[in-house]
Amino acid sequence: MTKIISYLRFKWIRRLERSCGPETLYRLLLPVSSLRTAFKKNPPPLPLPAAIGTGTVTPGSTQVQKNYYQNSALTFFPERLRNPEWLARCSFFGIDRLRDCQRQGRPAILVTVHFGPVFLLSRWLQAAGIRSATLASGRADERSCLNRLKDQVTLFPEIPRVFFPHQLRELTRFLSAGHVLVIAIDSHRGNLIEVPVGAGHHFRMATGAIRLAARYGAELFPCTLLDEGHWRFRFELGRPVPEEFLTEPPDLMAAGKHLAHELLRRFQAHPQQCSPMVLKCFQPASVEIAGEPIFKNEEALNQRPKTSPPLTHR
Question: Domain with 177 in it: what CATH number?
Answer without folding.
Answer: 3.40.1130
